[in-house]
Every structure is written in structure tokens, then in C-alpha cells.
Specification:
Blueprint: H1 3-6, H2 8-28, E1 45-47, E2 52-65, E3 69-85, E4 89-98, E5 102-104, E6 107-109, E7 114-127, E8 130-138, E9 169-181, E10 184-193, H3 195-198, E11 221-233, E12 238-249, E13 254-266, E14 271-281, E15 289-300, E16 304-315, E17 320-334, E18 337-347, E19 356-364
Length: 365
């Protein structure tokens, strides 16, 4: 049975929810009220009379990992749908076609294609500083995971620090918002996950998602509780965050504790960012997992950016301590379009994030 066949149930659920969102508007409004606002690339298609917005992103990637062959992959094709219901309620969903088409020396294939509901939740805004969320959402650990879409990040490759130690998605409830501390904004996210009870404990997110990685380990939450705080300073040119999560993974089934820190500083000539995580297991025989990266982005003329990143990561499964260096060029002719070329090298990284050349074209629509 193919991935596409196995994914019919979540796709059907999304279509039912879409129908529920737009049916009242169809029943009570004329066709003229469905005139959208003027469309601008990257801002989605908005129908303000109905509080409805459609958007998404797509990215095409070329992988040329050393000694692993090469492939051209339609990596992601995501559709966003948001629906405002009154002044306080909002529904949001993101449905993604992953690895839609792969072209390699063997020819074109859709064998690895999968359809996944990346996000599906309802928000209820209590006040300007408090909103409750129920459903499936991105796990609030670090800053990369919350803005993971290819057109919005600087490199085609993703640091191990942002994928290896925790599930990228959670299913449960969250409270989030922004408050003021000493005259500065403090963003917060507090969540509980009970994926086991909802039955949504399968995903297509590999712990080591780099092309050519040898491990097929997936980090799916069974249960989790945690949160993140992000403090903004220097007129929002510096943000510093801290994360904490206590969770049980499906495979290998084990309880863990994770803490993390992150920052982004934007100067006139450089942007510096970094994240670090430290994970311990209740099973004392399992080694601790930890690592972090530091990334610099330097703007060049003609919408070009030079990107450099160094990452050091200690991983217990498989047992490797990798050092990874990434150097690339990012071209953004428009804020919603990103073309990337990069070279990844390292030591002891062959199993987790193989060296090679990587290219991607991402469009936010």
C-alpha cells in the first residue's frame, strides 16, 4: 500500500473541515462577496468578508550528497487555510505533500510521496496577551522549528539541533501570548501533548532528515508537557529564548527531559543566530544527547546573502559526535522567493548529515 493511499484519512478530514469553514459563508452571501483582496505573492489569497485566507509554500530541492548519488525532489507542497470565526475564534490547517516527485538516476518516482496534516488547530483569543490553542501544532522548542518553511529559513539543510532530540509536532492544548516585562515584550508558549490518546502518533518527520542519512528513526510524542519563553531586547534586534520539555517518545519508547536556549541578533552588517539543546533519558544507560549551532548571515549587494553555520552534535542513536560546517549563498529577489546553494562538510557526520552540495528553490504564495 502506498503512502498516498495510507494518507487518505487525514486528507478527507481536511476537506470536511474546509467545507465546514466555508459553508456558512456560501449559504448567506452572494457571489459578489467572494471578491478577494488584491493578491500579492507571499501574502496568500484573502476573502475578508468571510475571514478566509488561502496560502502555502512549495520548494524544489537538489541533493548531491557525497558517495550517495544525487536526486531532484519536489520536497514540499503545503497548503495553508485559515478561517476567522467571529472576533475570538480562528481555525488553521496546513496540509503538505512531501517528497511528491523524486528524480534520480533510476528515473522519476512517487514512491516516497506522502500527504500529512502538518498543523490543524483552533485558537480562542481571550485577550491581547492570552490565546488558547487545541489541535496539532509545531512544538515550541527554539526559533527554527516555528518558522521551518523552506522560503523563510536561510539554508536548504536543517541543523540536527532542530530535528534530532524532540518531535517537531505536538497534538494537544497550548496557551500562548505576549506580555510586557520591564518594558520589553516576552513571548510565551505553554503546552501539553497527548498524542497517544488522540491516535495521532505517526508522522513523516525523521529525526535525521538530511538526504542520505542512514537512520530512519522518528521522534513522535506519546505524551509531553513543556514550554518556551522568548524575550525581545534592543528594539527587537535581539531575541533570547529558553525551552523546556518533559516527554515520552513512541520509538524508542522512553521518557526524556530536554532544555534548550536560542537567540537571534540582527545588526547592520550581520545576523547572528544559534540554538542549543540538552536531553537526558530516564534510562541511565542511555547516553545524554546534546549539541548546538551558531549561524551568521551577511547581506551582499543585489539581494544576495552569504550564510555560514557551524554545528557540533552528540548523538546516542547512532552513537556519533558530529561536527558540521555549512557555507552557502541565499538569493532573495523577493521576500517570498528564496534560491539557495550550499556546501556541507564535516567530521563523523556521514550517518546523520552527509556532506555534499545542496540547492533549493522555495516560493511562499
Amino acid at each position: 500500500m502506498s503512502h498516498l493511499t495510507r494518507s487518505r484519512r487525514p486528507c478527507t478530514l481536511f476537506l470536511v473541515c474546509l467545507a465546514i469553514c466555508i459553508q456558512p459563508a456560501l449559504a448567506t452571501n452572494t457571489d459578489a462577496s467572494w471578491q478577494p483582496q488584491p493578491y500579492h505573492l507571499g501574502q496568500g489569497l484573502s476573502f475578508p468578508q468571510h475571514g478566509l485566507r488561502l496560502g502555502g509554500y512549495a520548494d524544489l530541492q537538489f541533493y548531491g550528497a557525497d558517495h550517495r548519488g544525487s536526486a531532484l525532489v519536489l520536497e514540499d507542497m503545503s497548503l495553508f487555510l485559515s478561517q476567522d470565526i467571529g472576533q475570538r475564534w480562528k481555525l488553521f490547517s496546513e496540509v503538505e505533500l512531501g517528497d511528491g516527485v523524486t528524480v534520480s538516476h533510476r528515473g522519476a518516482s512517487t514512491r516516497d510521496a506522502n500527504i500529512d496534516i502538518e498543523r490543524f488547530y483552533a485558537d480562542y483569543r481571550v485577550s491581547d496577551g492570552v490565546t488558547f490553542r487545541v489541535g496539532k501544532f509545531l512544538t515550541p522548542v527554539g526559533q527554527w522549528n516555528l518558522i521551518h518553511a523552506d522560503p523563510l529559513v536561510w539554508t536548504a539543510s536543517r541543523p540536527l539541533t532542530t530535528t534530532s532530540a524532540f518531535s517537531r509536532h505536538a497534538t494537544g492544548a497550548m496557551m500562548y501570548g505576549t506580555t510586557s516585562v520591564h518594558g520589553k515584550d516576552l513571548d510565551y508558549w505553554l503546552f501539553v501533548d497527548d498524542s497517544q490518546a488522540t491516535g495521532l502518533v505517526t508522522s513523516h518527520d525523521l529525526a535525521y532528515g538530511a538526504y542520505g542519512a542512514r537512520s530512519s528513526l522518528k521522534n513522535d510524542f506519546l505524551h509531553a508537557i513543556g514550554g518556551q519563553f522568548l524575550y525581545h531586547m534592543l528594539e527587537d534586534r535581539l531575541s533570547v529564548g529558553a525551552s523546556f520539555v518533559r516527554y515520552e517518545l513512541k520509538n524508542p519508547q522512553q521518557w526524556y527531559r530536554l532544555s534548550g536556549v536560542d537567540f537571534v541578533w540582527t545588526g547592520s552588517r550581520v545576523e547572528l543566530s544559534g540554538e542549543a539543546v540538552y536531553r537526558t533519558a530516564d534510562n541511565s544507560r542511555l547516553p545524554n544527547e546534546y549539541g548546538g549551532f551558531l549561524q551568521a548571515v551577511v547581506p551582499l549587494p543585489r539581494h544576495l546573502y552569504l550564510v555560514g553555520r557551524f554545528e557540533h552534535y552528540r548523538n546516542p542513536l547512532p552513537d556519533e559526535t558530529a561536527s558540521i560546517r555549512t557555507l552557502g549563498i541565499n538569493y532573495r529577489p523577493l521576500p517570498s522567493i528564496a534560491l539557495k546553494l550550499e556546501r556541507v562538510d564535516g567530521t563523523h557526520n556521514a550517518a546523520l548529515a552527509p556532506s555534499g552540495w545542496f540547492v533549493s528553490i522555495g516560493v511562499l504564495f
